[in-house]
Design brief:
Order of helices and strands of chain A: HEHEEHEHEHEHE
Largest sheet of chain A: 7 strands, parallel
Number of domains of chain B: 2
CATH architecture of the largest domain in chain B: 3-Layer(aba) Sandwich
Number of helices of chain A: 6
Structural class of chain A: alpha/beta
Largest interface: A-B, 52 and 45 residues
Structural class of chain B: alpha/beta
Oligomer: heterodimer
Number of strands of chain A: 7
Helix content of chain B: 40-55%
Distance between the termini of chain B: 56 Å
Shape of chain A: globular
Radius of gyration of chain B: 20 Å
CATH architecture of chain A: 3-Layer(aba) Sandwich
CATH class of the largest domain in chain B: Alpha Beta
Largest sheet of chain B: 6 strands, parallel
Strand order of the largest sheet of chain A: 3-2-1-4-5-6-7
Chain lengths: 155, 180
């Protein structure tokens, strides 16, 4: 187990449902060859993802504090149990939380802001700026203004 | 068949009611809407509050026209499947979203050949009439354009996944905390 781990990185791909999830699905080829697990808010993702590699957490944002607390606990559980070497998120709040928690176990972390944020970074991306190893915007103009990187986009 | 989707987080009755009134004048067309948390009643369109990803995908594939809020999920699915899509951006002033970023998304995405943006119900009716008049024909987005942006992003992530392990991550973390 230990030897296979060192060869094949464990990746945790975290995204909220809806558009964040659709964007994550477009990026799946990037994880080829790695042991990739998905964490998302919509349990029906099991329709399209191997359920043994799927981890569901409650959807929350800064206006739903109770659910946010549950979300923190659930994501902490996922991160500390899985101990990924790499965490990649396409947002939103859950992605930032996973990155913040994954830093505690030394994982490499990347936050890719949703392509929906065409004029400025999302709050989650701004919070990730001081925490994640890499923060990417999918818009060159936003990257220039904020210090995020532009490396391409899902469309 | 027309498939409408407004996501699942906040109601978006401006779109659904606009579609419903248009449907009243176009009874020969079958319209299904994934209506989210709306509490309104609709007489001329069928609604399902929430559907699983498999069912969503199926309806999306079968539809000849997509009508949706300006969410990236809607836009990306439409681009992938080459479907014409009419987008109505959610507006914060009507309590349809927490902010107006869907307006920005719609402005940027209106460059795609399969996208029509409708700011209000009148514009939505015009766009629907136009889609019917052209028998839902649409030029699809160019695959070449897409490879230009998606491929380097995937390459960047792959390099990141396979990068060598960071040396002494715990210490770096502690150092950061002290500096903060």
């Amino acid at each position: 187990m230990l030897t296979s781990r060192s060869k094949k990185p464990v990746v945790l791909a975290v995204s909220s449902g809806g558009g964040h999830w659709v964007q994550m699905r477009r990026l799946v080829p990037a994880f080829q060859g790695a042991e990739v697990h998905f964490a998302t808010t919509d349990a029906s993702a099991a329709d399209v993802i191997d359920p043994t590699r799927l981890h569901v957490y409650p959807d929350a944002n800064k206006e739903t504090p109770l659910r946010l607390a549950l979300c923190v606990l659930r994501i902490a559980w996922i991160v500390f149990l899985l101990r990924p070497q790499v965490v990649v998120s396409t947002g939103a709040a859950g992605g930032f939380l996973a990155i913040r928690l994954a830093r505690l176990i030394g994982a490499r972390t990347m936050f890719i802001d949703s392509i929906a944020n065409a004029r400025k970074l999302s709050v989650s991306a701004q919070l990730s700026m001081g925490v994640a190893d890499r923060v990417l915007s999918q818009w060159p103009g936003v990257a220039d203004l904020t210090g995020a990187e532009y490396r391409g986009a899902v469309i | 068949m027309i498939f409408a989707t407004v996501g699942t987080q906040l109601p978006f009755d401006r779109l659904l009611l606009g579609l419903d009134t248009w449907a009243a004048n176009n009874p020969h067309l079958s319209i299904l809407a994934q209506s989210g948390v709306s509490e309104s009643q609709f007489s001329h369109i069928r609604t399902v509050s929430h559907m699983g990803q498999a069912a969503f995908q199926e309806h999306f594939e079968q539809a000849r026209l997509i009508v949706g809020h300006a969410g990236m999920g809607t836009i990306l699915c439409a681009a992938e499947l080459g479907k014409p899509v009419i987008l109505m951006p959610r507006r914060a002033e009507f309590g349809e979203h927490r902010n107006d970023h869907q307006q920005d998304t719609a402005d940027e995405m209106s460059r795609l050949s399969n996208v029509t943006v409708a700011a209000d119900q009148q514009a939505l009716h015009r766009a629907l009439d136009q889609a019917v008049a052209s028998d839902f024909n649409v030029a699809t987005a160019s695959a070449a354009d897409e490879a230009d942006t998606l491929a380097p992003l995937i390459e960047t992530i792959r390099d990141f996944v396979w990068a060598p392990e960071r040396a002494e991550p715990q210490r770096r973390f502690l150092l950061r905390r002290k500096l903060a």
